[in-house]
Specification:
- The chain has 156 residues and is mainly alpha-helical.
- The chain has one domain: Ferritin, core subunit, four-helix bundle (Ferritin, Up-down Bundle).
- 80% of the residues lie in helices and 0% in strands.
- Helix 2 packs antiparallel against helix 4.
- The longest helix has 31 residues.
- It starts with 5 loop residues before the first helix and ends with a helix.
- The structure holds fe (ii) ion (2 copies).
- One fe (ii) ion binds next to helix 1, helix 2 and helix 4.
C-alpha cells in the first residue's frame, strides 16, 4: 500500500468513534427495553446495534489495512438517559442524521484525497444509516399519529 494518509486515517477514526458510540447507545436501549418487556422494539434496537458494530469493525479493518493506528478513543455517550420509547426514537433519529452528515462529508473528502477504497466503504455504511433513519422516522410519525396505541400494538 502507498504512504499512509493521515487525513484519511483521521476521517475513518472519527467515524469509527461515532459508530462505537452508537453501538453503546443502542445496546443500552435494547437491554432496557427487553427488561421492560418491550420485545419488538428491543429486537429492532439489537439489530441496529449489531449493524453499527459491523460498521465499526469494517472501519477498524480499513484503518489497519492503511497502516493507521487504532488508538483508544473517547466514544460518544448519551447526555441524558432515555426511558420512554418515544424519546429513544427521537435520540436515535438525531444520531442517524449526524452519521449521515458525517459520512456524506467524509465521502467527498475521501474522493478529494484519491482514496476511493475508503470512499466505497463509507458509501456502504451510508446506505445502512439512511435505512436506519427511514425506519426511525416512520416509527416517529406513527407514534405522533396513533400515540400509545401504536406503541402497544407494534413496539411491545
Ligand atoms: Fe453505523
Ligand atoms: Fe445507524
Amino acid at each position: 500500500m502507498r504512504k499512509t494518509n493521515k487525513k484519511i486515517i483521521k476521517i475513518l477514526s472519527d467515524i469509527y468513534t461515532a459508530e462505537v458510540g452508537a453501538v453503546g447507545v443502542y445496546m443500552d436501549q435494547h437491554t432496557k427495553c427487553a427488561d421492560k418487556g418491550y420485545h419488538k422494539f428491543a429486537e429492532m434496537l439489537k439489530n441496529d446495534a449489531v449493524n453499527e458494530m459491523k460498521h465499526a469493525e469494517g472501519l477498524m479493518e480499513r484503518i489497519l489495512f492503511l497502516d493507521g493506528e487504532v488508538a483508544y478513543l473517547k466514544h460518544m455517550v448519551p447526555v441524558t438517559e432515555q426511558t420512554e420509547i418515544s424519546d429513544m426514537v427521537k435520540m436515535n433519529i438525531d444520531i442517524e442524521i449526524d452519521a449521515i452528515d458525517r459520512l456524506n462529508k467524509s465521502i467527498s473528502d475521501c474522493f478529494s484525497e484519491g482514496d476511493n477504497g475508503s470512499r466505497l466503504l463509507l458509501e456502504d455504511i451510508l446506505k445502512d444509516e439512511e435505512r436506519h433513519l427511514d425506519g426511525l422516522q416512520i416509527i416517529n410519525d406513527h407514534i405522533k399519529r396513533f400515540g400509545d396505541q401504536y406503541i402497544v400494538t407494534h413496539l411491545i
